[in-house]
Design a protein that fits this description.
The chain is an alpha/beta fold. It is built from 8 helices and 9 strands.
Length: about 220
């Protein structure tokens, strides 16, 4: 994502009610590695880039964490709050004229309706944790370095960044979700991050839906060097 045409395509997908990447359950890899993300902290600010209406956000908020997401589709944000039965307020965002902040009444969930590349550390603050599922893999190839720099700027010194990418045969499908194998993860992150590969998991549902013979989910935990 980033180009105007890509952003329009993303919004149109939501408007047409097509969100095949959405999971109605908490992602099993977030459940599995949450302890490594929060690292013993009872309350952590956790960032969700391109958050959509991920149920993971409500799950983390219920555990006492504060969740901050950025999502371009207002429809997706509204669906999240409605489906999770969470009351919220909407307010403008200072210095971002086209952006809006959707904030739960208890202040535990904040979702910015904005272009991801329009936000910054000045707007969002910094985070002790990140859950990047469906975000990096949606970014246009030419914007990946810019994306990584943004993520680094939002990380507190003790931040643990949980990253999910996909590895498949790009000759069969161009994406998104884009193919980002281990070599590309290390090319993007290794200079500024400690890259800790956690596991590879075959996703049979995604493999069937995308008509792939091989479709692996790669899980990493990244920390600032």
């Amino acid at each position: 994502m980033a180009s105007e045409s890509t952003n329009k395509g993303w919004i149109n997908t939501w408007e047409e009610g097509r969100s095949p990447w959405h999971r109605p359950q908490v992602h099993p890899m977030l459940e599995k590695y949450l302890d490594k993300v929060i690292a013993g902290r009872h309350s952590c600010r956790i960032f969700f880039p391109l958050c959509g209406k991920a149920v993971d956000m409500k799950w983390l908020a219920d555990k006492g964490h504060t969740v901050v997401g950025v999502e371009l589709s207002g429809k997706g944000i509204k669906e999240f709050f409605q489906e999770q039965n969470v009351e919220y307020d909407v307010s403008p965002v200072e210095n971002l004229p086209d952006a809006e902040l959707y904030k739960s009444k208890d202040g535990k969930i904040l979702i910015y309706k904005a272009d991801l590349f329009a936000v910054s550390r000045d707007v969002l603050g910094t985070f002790g944790g990140m859950w990047d599922r469906g975000s990096l893999v949606a970014i246009d190839k030419e914007d990946r370095e810019r994306y990584v720099n943004l993520m680094a700027s939002l990380m507190a010194p003790d931040c643990n960044y949980l990253l999910s990418t996909f590895d498949y045969d790009p000759a069969v499908m161009k994406g998104p979700p884009h193919c980002i194998p281990d070599s590309e993860v290390r090319r993007l992150y290794a200079n500024s991050f400690h890259v800790d590969f956690m596991e590879k998991d075959e996703d049979p549902a995604e493999k069937t839906m995308l008509k792939q013979d091989r479709f692996d989910e790669l899980i990493y935990i990244l920390t600032i060097n």
